[in-house]
Amino acid sequence: MKEHWMGTLLLALDLSGTFVFALSGATAGIKKRLDLFGVLVLSFAAGNAGGIARDVLIGAVPPAALATWYYLAVSLLAGVVTFWRPAGIDRLRNPVLLFDAAGLGLFAVAGTQKALNFGLNPVMAALLGMLTGIGGGMTRDLFLTEVPIVLRADIYALAALAGAAVVVIGSAVRLPATAVTIAGAALCFALRYLAMCRGWRLPVADDPQPPKTPAPKDRKDDGGSL
Amino acid sequence: MKEHWMGTLLLALDLSGTFVFALSGATAGIKKRLDLFGVLVLSFAAGNAGGIARDVLIGAVPPAALATWYYLAVSLLAGVVTFWRPAGIDRLRNPVLLFDAAGLGLFAVAGTQKALNFGLNPVMAALLGMLTGIGGGMTRDLFLTEVPIVLRADIYALAALAGAAVVVIGSAVRLPATAVTIAGAALCFALRYLAMCRGWRLPVADDPQPPKTPAPKDRKDDGGSL
Amino acid sequence: MKEHWMGTLLLALDLSGTFVFALSGATAGIKKRLDLFGVLVLSFAAGNAGGIARDVLIGAVPPAALATWYYLAVSLLAGVVTFWRPAGIDRLRNPVLLFDAAGLGLFAVAGTQKALNFGLNPVMAALLGMLTGIGGGMTRDLFLTEVPIVLRADIYALAALAGAAVVVIGSAVRLPATAVTIAGAALCFALRYLAMCRGWRLPVADDPQPPKTPAPKDRKDDGGSL
């Protein structure tokens, strides 16, 4: 009974996150002038690659995103909507960023739960939760031959990791799964939202061998505050 | 008995497709000035990455391409031939495009068959058949840090999907596997051939925020390049 | 007993190689101006992606690099050290190249051993050993949207392949595993070291359709009837 309930919760979380992530994939694909097929591939990849990578790594094959048609349908819907109404999606930029933060939280906690269910140790389960959250965006960027934005800027993965840590710690001390899941997703969302509003960033190291034209603003990163 | 026959058919299809796809990988690698090892890696990747991805996703590990040395040998042969006779392969550009269309059809139906055999639902089996067909070329392009051509131009993946759909539908209504396989591969080949001859393309969306130099129309670049 | 000993040997080899490879990932990430998180991801990827790919392909999931926290800890340590002391690591460039050659040998033989243990045939086991050695560096380069250096220059993968071949052949003729492992790693290290010192390179093919600036020697492709 409880198993079943957990499963339904995980499915609902996953599908919601998939839709908003797929929007980001479709938007990026349109900007790079992909054709309709390319845009739909980017939608599916951005929405599902994180979860697929997680499932392949923990041995849950075929991955959930391929075992049913739900994830595909949700991804294609996001892609088609974006393709025919890119201006509309663009006007929704700020709401989409909000939803993206929510999707990040949902994916991180759902991915962590699943990795724990498959017997991974807590530290790696949290990392796989983070991978679930950031893997789609990384795949989207790599398909477009861009260095993944998550590796360069912003507090994004750390927010996912914080949410995942809540799930792992809550599970270790046997708190109720539902409460822990909600708390983890909420923490991730809040961190991501604050990071966006305040422009929080991680430090960048000084390159001992800078290229020809060192940008002057590169000087300010002393690597001190997190 | 029938199982065995099916297995032999799948193997023959796979190896034929592997060779022509490996040619495309080797050609691309030589154009990017890879060394001999790089060219052989590109040959193997272009010929096998689609099938390997499919096998990892459906849980058929080790993937067929790694379980025997056949696929490796066929890929290396294609790579070596291309490496020492690039001009010869280049002169065969049109035949190679034809063989590539044939390989696409073979991979799509073989991949769909295998996914069905592993119990995937029909919609996702067709998608995995398509992935089998396009995965090698995508990996080839990504290794060379190019946005996969299949996401940008031409009717390519859709032809594979149409062939895969024939297999899935034929299997659902219990038509003979051989007939269905041939019909699917033929449909894919025909669609791809027509798309090349007539320059069929998928639509590209209007970008709501075009970059600095907005092109008034879609770039007419590189239709049908391998 | 012997199983246990083998396992400990493999673990020690893997962790040593992981650290030096992670250094290369962190250094590359810093050069591309990734933030701290990005540098740590590159460290982990460069140190572990080869082994993870091998484990996924042979069905050893969750991969060893995710089953314990050892690999993560070693990778993060390398990343953090490089991040806060990039100048120090840079001064150690030559030692690091030496350690990288040692890591390559260790990974190649350990990867080959593991693939043999999982029942792969000798040829493909050697290839998977090579993949273990070069997969991390390839992933590092692809994350930074560069054509993997291993495909373009130097004798690197071939050295790994030679070491892997020693393990495969030694195993086939039932020589003691320890001796074979050491001999394979030593051969790989020696080849890689010589290749670095003497600038050994693999041939690059003539491109039949050179880009804008055709080198004069590209002209010689005349007589190749296929």
UniProtKB/TrEMBL annotation, chains A, B, C:
Residues 215-226 have a biased composition (Basic and acidic residues). Residues 12-84, 98-169 form the Glycine transporter domain. Residues 205-226 are annotated as: Disordered. It is found in: Cell membrane. InterPro entries: Gly_transporter (IPR005115). It holds the Pfam family Gly_transporter. Its main location: membrane. Belongs to the UPF0126 family. This is Membrane protein. The lineage of its organism: Bacteria, Pseudomonadati, Thermodesulfobacteriota, Desulfuromonadia, Geobacterales.
